[in-house]
Amino acid sequence: MILFRYLAREVLIAMLAVTFSLMVIIVSSRFVKYLAEVAQGDLAAEVLFQILLYRLPNFLEVIIPMGLFIGILLAYGRLYVDSEMTVMRACGFSRARLIAYTLGPALLIGVLVGWISMYVSPAGIQAYQELLQDSKSSDSLKVAVEGRFRVDRSTGQVTYIERLQREGGVMHGIFLAETQESEDGGPRLELIAAATGQFEVDKASGQRFLALDQGVRYLGRAGELDYQVVRFKRLGQWLEQEGPVSYRQEADGLPTAVLWKSSEPEHVAALQWRISLALLVPIIAVIAIAMSETDHRRGRYGKMFPAFVIYLVYLVALNAGRDALARGTLPAWPGIWWIHAIFAVLAVVLLYGPSWVRRWRAGSLTIGAADAQA
């Protein structure tokens, strides 16, 4: 029991350190990405930290297994280099007991990852999608930036607001520029300048539009005299609707209970992916046990690179299998379970293969020596 607590403590400490480091890196990169969208006016600053909070479970379900994998490599690698594992083996600590002691915490972590991927992460993704859609579409006034040109990356429209009255929802000194396609297929430029404007909702269709007051509209081609000038008291422009979300965004936000009852390929793929994240944990734990075995000559990090390659191939294979299952090119059974079976066999081979080879060579030499004496 003392060895179990010692090994579990070493693995968990290394795992927490790696998980925290990876989380800081990923959250920082996402924060910079969302901060750029806030600066461009594509995202409201008020929802920035809420979005990061909702995305945390989605990050953790992938980071925690990797943290456990690297934690086992670091902890057991140190024990091998410091000869502690050798002393344990000399005192009768077998490899089977090492696997059992490692799989104990790994199974608990697998349950935690399964709970996050099947319940917490879908709820977070759904809340994130609703918040993002509300921020970008339902309340465009929040993302409006005064005194700065803003370019919509999806439509190419350029907007400028001289002054913004947020309490009343009124914008002053509005300028819009957008390139359109003419009847002959060539580009033409539309420029609109208005004194005031605000966002309104059409009662009949429920679609939102931008109502502009007291302005002028120019429509034509740059460098040509054939253009239109229209002065208006009030002009309405429909706002672009949000594009369709991908199958992953839609399926990842659905509750697990809904996926269980569905036979749609996208939903089956999402369900198998959630279960796979938990099933991944004990398999990579055994692989890490095998790859952590080292000596003084190779050092603590001697097998780090091939171990990372195996882990990445495993994760990429699961990801590709999910896409194939969602497209219908892979049947629901065996689905992506065969990928787990392959890497489970690989874990056993990596763990016991070298000893099997040594026994086979020793047996061959013994037989050869006996034949030579005969």
Structure characterization notes:
With 374 residues, the chain is α+β, with helices and mostly antiparallel strands. It is 61% helix and 17% strand. Strands 1-2-3-4-5-6 form a 6-stranded antiparallel β-sheet, with no helix packed on it. Helix 2 runs antiparallel to helix 4, helix 2 runs parallel beside helix 8 and helix 8 runs parallel beside helix 10. The protein is elongated, with a radius of gyration of 30 Å.
The strands making up the biggest β-sheet line up spatially as 1-2-3-4-5-6
* SSE pattern: HHHHHEEEEEEHHHHH
Strand coverage percent: 15-25%
* N- and C-termini, Cα separation: 51 Å
Mean pLDDT: 80
What is the global morphology?
A: elongated
Helix content: 55-70%
Low-confidence stretches: 137-142
Computed structural class:
alpha+beta
Largest beta-sheet details: 6 strands, antiparallel
What is the gyration radius calculated from CA atoms? 30 Å
The number of helical segments is 10
Count of beta strands = 6
Give a short synopsis of this structure.
By secondary structure, the chain is α+β, with helices and mostly antiparallel strands. α2 packs antiparallel against α4 (95-138) and α4 (95-138) runs antiparallel to α8 (265-291). The protein has helices at 2-40, 48-81, 84-90, 95-138, 140-143, 247-252, 256-261, 265-291, 304-327, 337-373, and strands at 150-151, 158-165, 170-181, 187-201, 208-220, 227-238.
Using brief descriptors, characterize the structure shown:
single chain; 374 residues; alpha+beta; six-stranded antiparallel β-sheet; 10 helices; 61% helix; elongated
